[in-house]
Amino acid sequence: MTEAIKGIEKETVPGEGAVAATTVAVARTPTEPAAGRGAALRVEGAGISFGDFRAVQGIDLDIPAGEFLCLLGPSGCGKSTLLSAMAGFIQVSEGTLTAGGAPVRGPDPELGMVFQSSEVLFDWMTVHQNVTFGPRMRGVSRVEQNRVADEFLGLVGLRHCADRYPGQLSGGMRQRVQIARVLANEPGVVLMDEPFGALDAQTRQVLQQETARIWEASGCTVVFVTHDIDEAILLADRVAVMTAGPAASIKSLYTVDLPRPRDESDPAALRLRSRLREDIGEEVRKAMRDQGLDDRLDREAKGA
Ligand SMILES: Nc1ncnc2c1ncn2[C@@H]1O[C@H](COP(=O)(O)OP(=O)(O)OP(=O)(O)O)[C@@H](O)[C@H]1O
Fold first, then answer.
1. Which part of the chain is the ABC transporter domain (predicted)?
2. Nearest CA to ligand 1 atom 8
3. pTM higher than 0.80
4. Which of 46, 72, 93, 153 can pair with 59 through a Cys bridge, CB separation 3.0 to 4.6 Å?
């Protein structure tokens, strides 16, 4: 079923735990990666449990090669859990998860992960050594390592820092090194877990623009977890909104059909932002109700 809402198209899939898919119009066809490097990700009926606790369940996501998908949802709903499963760090307890048609069974250089903290960089290695770590482990020649460092440090604008150590860089520069280190493995899929969450607003804005440019240049598939609705609108081909946990699932899927680079003041972007706020707000309120927090906050507001 498709419901057209001036610039935004909402598609409702009936059935248990009905999933809503909403569409706003797109600039680049997500299935046409710039460099043809991306691998498709397919999640079907996936559930992930920790002991008796079911974090997510019934997750269905078909992410075409080269797509940029943002994952939004209330805090603690299971975004990082789902991303970790995509990275092969944890296994799905039910359903299937494939990358490039093959089941994800564990960590793989094809599946690159960028974490919120740049503490994952090797402090005792130079930027060049950090970025070429993966290729070095694969035994590629020194000439090839230098080519890789040159290409990916160039992509993140840090060629001039090749001989510095992470401790000598700003937080934003370290995040760029982390991104270059992941890209140096030439992964088909890049998974980003709130990569700019710890950065100041200006640095964050610069890195968002760089991420969009790097994604277009590399052609890889990106799954990007964020709390920031504007960040999602700026970057995504599609935005998936998760329900509140436990047993969280995909509530809605929005296809962002706005020209790149994105203009936040575009009326369609503003409409999408208010739809996303409404959608996520509903889940946050649900989570607060489940935790009994809304009553407590009401009482506190009334001075009880
Ligand atoms: N290793 C684990 N063992 C037990 N429970 C876990 C584990 N990892 C995550 N959880 C639980 O799974 C749920 C989802 O956590 P997750 O970190 O994926 O949420 P999130 O949406 O990424 O949260 P946030 O937005 O706050 O970062 C939470 O209830 C969390 O406590």
1. 41-269
2. 81
3. yes
4. 46
CATH assignment at residue 23 = 3.40.50.300
The residue behind tokens 């009994």 is: 292
Question: Which residue has 């797109």 as its token pair?
Answer: 26
- Establish if 211 belongs to a structural domain: no
Domain assignment present for residue 266? The answer is yes
The CA 47 to ligand 1 mean position distance, Å, reads: 13
Residue 177 resides in a domain: no
Question: Interface pTM (ipTM) of the complex?
Answer: 0.97
Residue 136 lies in a domain: no
Question: Residue 100 is part of which domain span?
Answer: 2-110+193-201+223-301
Q: What Å distances lie between residue 235 and 21, 26, 32, 259, 301, CA to CA?
A: 18, 12, 16, 11, 37
Query: In whole angstroms, how large is the CA radius of gyration of the chain?
Result: 20
CA of 189 to the centre of ligand 1 (A): 22
* Nearest CA, atom 26, ligand 1: 75
